[in-house]
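Quick one: Helicase from Sphingomonas pokkalii, structure tokens please.
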Amino acid sequence: MSQFARSPVTAVLGPTNTGKTHLAVERMCGHASGMIGFPLRLLAREVYDRVVRMKGPAEVALITGEEKILPSKARWFCCTAESMPLERETAFVALDEAQLGADPERGHVFTDRLLRARGREETMILGSDSLRPMLKALVPEAEIVGRPRFSTLSYAGAKKLSRLPRRSAIVAFSAEEVYAVAETLRRLRGGAAVVMGALSPRTRNAQVAMFQAGEVDYLVATDAIGMGLNMDVHHVAFASLHKFDGRRQRRLTIAEMAQIAGRAGRHQKDGTFGALHEEGPSAFTPEEVLAIEGHQVPRLEHLYWREGEPDFDSIDALIASLERKPEDEVLHAAPQATDLAVLKRLSEESWVRDRVRHPRMVARLWAACGLPDFRKLGVDPHARFVGRLFGHLSEGRGHVPHQWFADEIQRLDNMGGDVETLAGRIAAARSWAYIAHRADWLEEPAHWAERTRAIEEKLSDALHASLTQRFVDKRTTVLLRQIGADASNLPVTIGPEGEVSVEEHPLGTLEGFRFKVAAEARAGDKRMLLAAAEKRLAGEYRRRGSALAEAPDAELAQVGSAIHWRGHDVALLKPGANLVRPRVQLDRALDVLDPQAKAAAQARLERWFGERVAADLPVLAKLDAITREEAAGAPLRALANALLEQGGLLPRRAAGTMIEGLDGPARHRLRTIGMTIGTLDLFAPALLKPRAAARRRALMGLEQGPPDAAVVLPRDAKGADLAHGFRPFGAQAVRVDLVERIARAAHEARQGRKPFAPDPALATSIGLKPETIARLMAQLGFRTARGDADAPQRWIWQGLTPLAKPKPAAVPGNAFAALAALRNG
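--- reply ---
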């Protein structure tokens, strides 16, 4: 505890927009000296600039991890909470956003400052009203003062990005989501400023300046804006209500929602908040809305704590002190932070223990472990970097080598690349800036601090330019302001081929119900002007919806799993009851239609598809009818279902049990609809004809099939499998109907179990190889008969196959006639 612990402590609690930070700054400047700890580097810099304007640069210091401006006669200090020099005596001390003591990652820092940071004459603690029970338990001497919000904060409901009012801030919880929202706003509204905690103050200030100056009307930010950054925001919209807190994806707490939503409104100007989604996990619940509007945040039940003055006698003593449990019941031990995890990793290294044999070196090791993981590398990679750093700090004169430092920052002195690349370089530059601002880590710390600052500023300017280029379209912004609220006055022209133009600016073409931007038109123009011309396009969509609902068959086609209308996607075939009754899912582009028009389009497409199946694949349509016919009997319905799943072609071995369960009428029913119960396969000859085969492949999503006239294929050819109607035999595959004809001819030619030689003309004339014939005959239940090597191949019926002998069928008198009939039919 500080020696000034008996100084008056005032806790100013309340929601956002209460002027708590402004009050603290005014009180600090009224003392001879003072210090304020802030949660963000950005906020510390903002207040530093304000105090410099009041007191002059020679009197004010800025101390953060990566930036240190410390005039020799500085009396007022603006710091991040982690960087507060508690050993320095000042008349006034304040801690901002003290409720962050409940944060698992940084909470122990704020709890330590809450307990130990005291001014000689006055101490002020700023925070949410949720902190009240913690203050009563931990700082009972504190006078608690409530500050009401200056203006009203109310819920405005859910609004899409295209409907957000001007001067809105959209809050997202990852860089990817921030960029996606900003890109959408560029297309819809001409652009947005971007604010994230990972940005340098210079970039952040430049982005905020654009928003404050009205160059853009929207701001996209992470939850960093909830920590006191002062901007003229009228409405706060949540892109999501979930965030990754470093350990898991979770929903925001009421306190977090209120903190962020409270940025809407300024001083006595009312503000509103809402979401981008009306339903689902990204929508507010009624209870959350009431709590935020009423500033009723749940009271904190505990704060996180870690020893603020650890034991440096040895590494083990240091770790033990950092893992010590708090004595007060409202304090919980802080989860292991990155610095402690890195310390534990390095303590396992023998060379580290060899060098750390004195409290001074233990403290130096702990200082090195305090280097933040700005690049978000994770514990192991970051520990290796810190290990290399400590290796230099623990040998020789204890300085980082000039050449290593120079080479690393020179590598970062590159202004090329996209937004993500530049942001990554800035994160790396922050690590070196942190090192440069440790006066005892470099031989010339002032030189290297200036060098890293210059590089970070150049990268920041490049990042600002890149963000502006990527997310701001000034032409669109100006045009939107020119057309004002009456956007329907813009002349919109839609040509006979769907060409769309506004004010003689060609934007692209309406292809079906989807807008296709022209190569020469910018996305920002296209989206903005289409939004402005919404009424005109709505009429065109209605006209096209009616045309689709009444479309003749010639305008509709199935292409793969899609249904096209006039060559454009309008629906997808999704798995349904069975193969011939899929679910017809309208393309999302048809969402522009009203529900009645969509229902009419859906009905037309379903009717067209059913008619096409009945016309092109009548066998499958009849199998589908059997599956729904109670009188058909369970065995026949089961077999019909199995056949439908395989597109009307099923190996007999797979259906053996079902076939055995069929009675005479059921077998007759299958034959009447065109099914053949063959020796090896169940199939419908009609499905093998070119048009039906192509339709069947499309229905089943099969790849390109065999040539239309093919009856025998090489085994490795496309379509040489049962799915396409070909049965493999060794190096060749034979079409199943031809296999059945050969089977019937063989059984007609045999005489009991006597050796016989079937007429080879049919098999050899279509190109079957001897080994193919041998495999085929074997599968049909025959074995080779021993005999004269010069005699024709002879076979014996051995009846080993479980398949029944095929029933006699009308087979042409000779093999050549059979082949001719097959090829013609």
